Amino acid sequence: MISLDSPGWLGLILVIIPLIYIRHLWKGRGGTVTFAFTNWRGGGFSNPMTIQRFFSGFMTILFWIGTVLLIIAMAGPVRVQRERVFLSRGVDIMFVLDVSPSMAAQDQPGITRLQTAKQTIRDFVRRRQNDPVGLAVFGTQAGLKVPPTTDYQVFHQALEDTHIREMGDGTAIGMGLALANLHLNPSSAQDKVIILLTDGENNSGEITPEAAAGISQEQGIRLYTVGIGSTREVPLEFTDPQTGRIFRGIAQDSFDPGLLAELAGSTGGRYFEAASSGALEAAFQSIDSLERSDARVRIQVRKEPLHRPIMLVGMILVMAGILLPRFILGALV
C-alpha cells in the first residue's frame, strides 16, 4: 500500500493551479505582445504555430509536471507493509505419513489414499498460524522429508514430492514415530504433537510402535493416530518412483484399530478412523480444534521511502523546462 508521511504538502498543488491559469491562460492579465512584422498580411495580425512555439509550450508543460512531482516528493510517499510478528511459539507438529504400496488404494474412484491424505494435510496446515510443521514418511524404513518449520512453502513442496513406495514395501510405524520423536524432542515449544496416518499394520523396523509411543509419552508429546481406508477390497494402482513400472492390484490389508487407539491413548491423544475423504477431513478438524495455542501477535509496520526517484525525475523536468528553451530556442532565433 502506498501512503504519504506529510500529505499537507499536496496543498501546494492547489496553489499552483491558479498560477498556471494566470501565467498561461488568462487573457486579461495585461502585458505587451510583440509580433514579427512579417506576420502581417494586410489585415489583423496572426500568430501562427511554429516549431519554436510548440517547443516552448512543450517545455512549459514539462516544467509544471516536474513542479508537481517535486511537491509529491516533499509529501513523503512510502510503500507501507504490515507484517504480523508472533510473540509466542505455536504448537510443534510432526506428520508421520505411511507411503507403503497399500496407500495407492482407491477408496474413491480416481484418487488414492495418499492423495487424499496429502490434500487434507495441506488444508490443515493452511489453517494453522505460527505452528512449526514437519513431515516424516515410512515404508520398510522411515525418512525425514522436512523438520518442523514455519516456512510453509518448503513444507508443501516436501509434501508434494512424497510418493508411494519411496521407503519400500513394508509398514514401519514404530520407526516413523521414533523419527518424529527425535525431531520434536529438542523443541522448546510448550505443546508438541505427532499426527500419524496409516492404512496398515506394523510389520517392519527395529522399533515397535508401543516403544515409540512410550518415548512420546516421556517427552510430553501427544500422539494422534488416524487409520485411513475402508476394510473392503478396493483397486490399487501406482507407479514405482525408481523404475517407472506401473503396479495394479487389489488392496486387502487394513490397519489395527486397537493398536492405534492404544498408542494415542497412552500419550493423551485421540484415535480416528477415516474410511473416506470426508471422514479424514472431519478427523483433522477435530485435531485442529483440540490443538490450539493462544498466539500473541504484534503488527509490525515497515515503510520503504519512494521520494528519491520522484524527486530526481521532478528536478530533471524542471531544469529541462527552464534551460532547454533558452539554449535551443536561442540557437533557432
Automatic annotation (TrEMBL):
Alphabetic keyword roster: Cell membrane, Membrane, Transmembrane, Transmembrane helix
UniProt xrefs under Pfam families: VWA_2
Domain VWFA: residue ranges: 92-287
SUPFAM superfamilies from the UniProt entry: vWA-like (SSF53300)
Annotated transmembrane regions: 7-26, 54-75, 310-329
InterPro entries listed in its UniProt record: UPF0353/GerABKA_families (IPR050768), VWF_A (IPR002035), vWFA_dom_sf (IPR036465)
Protein name (database record): VWFA domain-containing protein
Organism of provenance: Spirochaeta lutea
